[in-house]
Design goal:
430 residues, single chain, 9% strand, 5-stranded mixed sheet, Heat Shock Protein 90, alpha+beta, 67% helix
Length: 430
């Protein structure tokens, strides 16, 4: 009996140090409060009395209560928020039962025929294995998941209930397993009911997590769209600034150019004046094609046309839109830019000698906007197309914008031509 008490108290003291190591974040005073020491001593007395005096059927329940009290006490000492403390208490209980179940299973598989659960060797071996595994798990959890973690924001109640579902079910199942191994009778009917209700609760929590995860992913995708829009807007503004500087420089020099022309005309040197005037006109020309009244759209189409020309790709553009389109410039930039980028990438992957061509039509019909883009591609790429879709955000961004505007997105192939059609409704003023 004395040996049992010593074993229990030794494992209890080790557990106290483990909990302090786990909750320690380097930002609090290492000095332990007197009331904490007193409460831990009281728990040690309860452990000793429980091991020596309490009936075997009640002992596991008291051990659980003492463990919960110890975890809550250490967590409170380290100023862990209440909801975090509750969640971590459930996690630690699950770890305890996992370690004890593992130790019992290992012992039974190796020494079960010779020694029963009441033998001295059984208690020494199972307690030792439990503590070793528990030390490894808690230190591993601290170093991998909770390294330098400070609990500045507590869990919400729905999150707490959801995250605790699996550990709670694990504790129930493992606790019943240990009771059966220690030959302690349990009410199977009640236990089965608890397990069924627990599994139901766990699946409801998984659905809750799924809903929150998809919502979180949607927010991430929206943030990605906003970042891409910001980059497009900044690029456009940068280009405008460059253009303005160029115009200012040309205006500054224009007066002198006019004086040169006047001088040539005074000398009746008409041919030299014409030649000089043509050079001046070439220098002030921006070589920009005006596809529409939207300067952002014009800039994007001109930039993409330059890229296509550098890649020896024929790029046919037709735009029939008015100035009353109500799609935001940055959103429009992402939509058109990503569509063209996808086509440019597909054409760039064509082998030498293959025709490289892209066709883009942007057409407004009353309040609706139709976008059609097609390009040549290699049909053999069907095998690798899925991986590229998952790796890139271009197509996902396009589909997200179309869905936000309650539009229609359609893609298909005809031979070696890839088509994408988009219809956006009610996106123009009367």
């Amino acid at each position: 009996m004395i040996v049992d008490v010593v074993i229990r108290l030794s494992s209890f003291i080790i557990y106290v140090f483990l909990l302090n190591f786990f909750f320690l974040d380097g930002s609090i005073d290492l000095k332990i409060q007197l009331k904490t020491i007193v409460f831990v001593c009281i728990l040690m007395i309860i452990i000793a009395l429980n091991t020596s005096l309490v009936p075997e059927s009640v002992e596991p329940v008291i051990n659980i209560i003492v463990t919960v009290g110890l975890i809550v006490t250490i967590a409170k000492h380290h100023n862990i928020p209440a909801k975090e403390a509750i969640f971590l208490t459930i996690i630690f209980l699950a770890i305890d039962f996992i370690c004890e179940t593992l130790s019992v299973s290992l012992f039974e598989s190796l020494l079960s025929p010779q020694f029963g659960p009441t033998s001295f060797l059984f208690k020494i071996m199972t307690t030792g294995i439990t503590m070793i595994v528990e030390i490894l798990l808690i230190i591993g959890a601290k170093l991998i998941f909770f390294k330098n973690k400070s609990y500045y924001q507590s869990l919400t109640i729905p999150a707490l209930l959801t995250l605790s579902s699996i550990p709670i079910i694990s504790v129930m199942i493992l606790f019943s397993f240990l009771l059966s191994k220690l030959n302690i009778n349990i009410q199977n009917n009640y236990f089965e009911l608890f397990v069924v209700l627990g599994i139901l609760y766990m699946n409801i929590c998984i659905l809750y997590l799924y809903n929150n995860l998809t919502s979180h992913l949607r927010k991430i995708n929206q943030i990605t769209l906003q970042n891409n829009a910001l980059k497009a807007e900044r690029k456009y503004i940068t280009e405008i600034k460059k253009t303005q500087k160029t115009i200012q420089s040309i205006r500054h020099d224009l007066k002198n150019r006019f004086l040169v022309i006047l001088g040539l005309l005074d000398q009746n040197d008409i041919d030299s004046a014409k030649e000089y005037l043509n050079k001046t006109l070439d220098s002030v020309s921006t070589h920009q094609v005006m596809y529409s009244e939207d300067p952002v759209l014009n800039y994007i189409l001109n930039e993409k046309s330059k890229i296509a020309k550098r890649n020896h790709t024929q790029f046919n553009i037709k735009v029939f839109v008015s100035h009353n389109i109500e799609i935001e410039n940055d959103i429009f930039a992402i939509l058109i830019g990503n569509l063209i980028d996808n086509s440019l990438e597909a054409v760039a992957r064509l082998s030498a000698g293959k025709r490289r061509s892209i066709s883009l039509v942007i057409k407004q019909l009353h309040k609706n906007l139709l976008i059609d883009i097609s390009n040549y591609y290699d049909p053999k790429e069907v095998i690798t197309r899925k991986s590229r879709q998952y790796d890139g955000l271009g197509t996902n961004n396009v589909k997200t914008i179309v869905n936000d505007y309650h539009g229609i997105y359609k893609q298909w192939t005809e031979g070696a031509t890839y088509h994408v059609d988009i219809a956006l409704f009610n996106v123009a003023r009367d």
